[in-house]
């Protein structure tokens, strides 16, 4: 009985300890409320948060869906969140066709993203990039 109790207590403590570990200590995850607010108020004006479910939704897009954008980020950078974060911060304020990871047909359809240099404060930029990396992993 003591052995079973010891195993049970050890298991609970071990599992409880695992639950408190962050997914990635280098970034703020989707719990980044400030970043989520920036995303909703400024980014979703053009980028939908989810992939379109119908042709009508797809045709109504004015920019690539964020799920697709972040898929390309993951394909390019894998789990290197520091490199991804650096790239995203630079691209958001200084976009160019040469730096773009979008497929050429997406640039032809949507055009190049306009610079958000004057639209985001440095803190908002940090917050939204951290949010996106955490939320779309």
Write structural notes for this entry.
- With 137 residues, this protein is mainly alpha-helical.
- The chain has a single domain (28-135), classed as Cytochrome Bc1 Complex, Chain D, domain 2.
- It has seven helices and no strands.
- The termini are far apart.
Number of helices: 7
This entry's quaternary arrangement is single chain
Global structural class: mainly alpha
Distance between the termini: 43 Å
Instruction: Note the beta-strand portion.
Output: under 5%
Number of domains: 1
SSE string, helices as H and strands as E = HHHHHHH
Number of strands: 0
List unreliable stretches of 5+ residues. 1-29
Major beta-sheet overview: none
Mean pLDDT value: 82
Within the CATH hierarchy, at the fold level, what is the topology? Cytochrome Bc1 Complex, Chain D, domain 2
Classified by CATH, the class is Mainly Alpha
Shape: globular
- Report the radius of gyration as a whole number of Å: 19 Å
**CATH 2nd-level architecture:** Orthogonal Bundle
- Specify the helix fraction band: 55-70%
CATH superfamily: Cytochrome c-like domain
